């Protein structure tokens, strides 16, 4: 017999967590989320992707709630296609941060996410975009600074993601926040910004708190969200750093890991 679902808020990352590798959400996971919603629980998507790279997925899901995008920079109302809050990167500080990182590790490959509902992702020479997401070539690095940005993406010709994130944190951690969000995705963000800051803003709009929240994720950029939530669940495919701080580890994103936990909690 069901004792009722113990959480009022389910926070899920997208890539590697809610989404399978083909960017779909399995029928089993959709059913489990719908069953949790019937108990009154809200679902908030919390993703590193900016709104322009998230919107089509939410529309396809028929998702009409709030979404936290851009590593916490943006709170987006998916039902109304409206940006509720947006935090931008101080471009002067970002320039200093980049110079400090390059002084330590040599030239970087760069991309950047412009602010706004339709903010372009600008991609410089050498930067490898993962997946088939739309982007605009950046021919002159000075164009980076021409309009407000949510984040800068950095890649390095020889360092691993872990090595690059560590070097960036060491060289520029006083100027920007550094997040590792996936394979080949190391980001420079406004200082102090994390998925937890965005999620707490979105939760407050729903009258919910950290004590009401179960969170699911797969990468180090989910660590702050895990610390904020009452209960945290890493996917089997998660980065070891995230597994180390999770309350539990579930099956992989390909094996309906979110559904496995929700079904158990729903009794």
Chain-averaged pLDDT: 94
- Could you give the order of strands across the largest sheet? 5-4-3-2-1-12-13-14
Secondary-structure element pattern, one letter each = EHHEHEEEHEEEEHEEHEHEHEH
In whole angstroms, the N-to-C terminal distance is: 7 Å
Which percent bin holds the helix content?
Answer: 25-40%
Structural class: alpha/beta
Strand percentage, roughly? 15-25%
Shape: globular
Tally of extended strands? 14
Low-confidence stretches: none
Rg, nearest Å: 18 Å
Number of helices: 9
Sheet with the most strands, sense and barrel status: 8 strands, mixed
Overview of this protein structure:
By secondary structure, this protein is an alpha/beta fold. Helix content is 33%, strand content 25%. It contains nine helices and 14 strands. The protein has helices at 14-18, 27-38, 51-61, 91-105, 161-172, 195-205, 223-228, 240-245, 257-266, and strands at 9-12, 42-46, 66-69, 74-77, 82-86, 109-114, 121-124, 136-138, 149-155, 176-182, 185-190, 213-217, 231-234, 248-249. The strands form two sheets. Strands 5-4-3-2-1-12-13-14 form an eight-stranded mixed sheet, sandwiched between helices. Strands 8-7-6-9-11-10 form a six-stranded mixed sheet. The chain is globular and about 55 Å long. The model has no long low-confidence stretch (mean pLDDT 94).
Q: What is this structure's SSE topology?
A:
Layout: E1 9-12, H1 14-18, H2 27-38, E2 42-46, H3 51-61, E3 66-69, E4 74-77, E5 82-86, H4 91-105, E6 109-114, E7 121-124, E8 136-138, E9 149-155, H5 161-172, E10 176-182, E11 185-190, H6 195-205, E12 213-217, H7 223-228, E13 231-234, H8 240-245, E14 248-249, H9 257-266
Parallel strand pairs: 1-2, 1-12, 2-3, 7-8, 12-13, 13-14
Antiparallel strand pairs: 3-4, 4-5, 6-7, 6-9, 9-11, 10-11
Helix pairs in contact: 2-9, 4-5
């Amino acid at each position: 017999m069901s004792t009722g679902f113990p959480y009022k808020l389910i926070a899920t990352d997208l890539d590697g967590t809610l989404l399978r590798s083909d960017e779909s959400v399995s029928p089993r996971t959709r059913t489990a989320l719908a069953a949790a919603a019937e108990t009154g629980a809200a679902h908030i998507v919390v993703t590193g992707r900016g709104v322009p790279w998230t919107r089509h997925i939410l529309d396809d899901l028929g998702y009409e709630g709030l979404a936290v995008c851009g590593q916490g920079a943006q709170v987006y109302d998916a039902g109304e296609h409206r940006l509720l809050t947006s935090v931008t990167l101080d471009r002067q500080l970002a320039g200093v941060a980049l110079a400090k990182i390059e002084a330590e590790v040599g030239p970087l490959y760069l991309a950047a996410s412009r602010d706004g509902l339709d903010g372009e992702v600008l991609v410089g020479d050498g930067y490898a975009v993962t997946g088939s997401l739309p982007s605009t070539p950046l021919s002159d690095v000075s164009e980076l600074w021409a309009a407000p940005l949510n984040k800068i993406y950095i890649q390095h010709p020889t360092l691993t993601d872990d090595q690059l994130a560590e070097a960036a944190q060491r060289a520029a951690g006083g100027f920007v926040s550094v997040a590792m969000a996936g394979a080949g995705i190391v980001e420079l963000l406004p200082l102090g910004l994390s998925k937890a800051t965005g999620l707490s803003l979105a939760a407050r709009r729903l009258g919910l708190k950290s004590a009401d929240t179960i969170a699911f994720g797969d990468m180090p950029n989910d660590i702050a969200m895990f610390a904020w939530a009452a209960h945290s669940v890493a996917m089997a495919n998660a980065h070891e750093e995230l597994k180390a701080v999770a309350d539990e580890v579930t099956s992989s994103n390909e094996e309906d890991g979110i559904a496995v936990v929700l079904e158990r909690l729903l009794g």
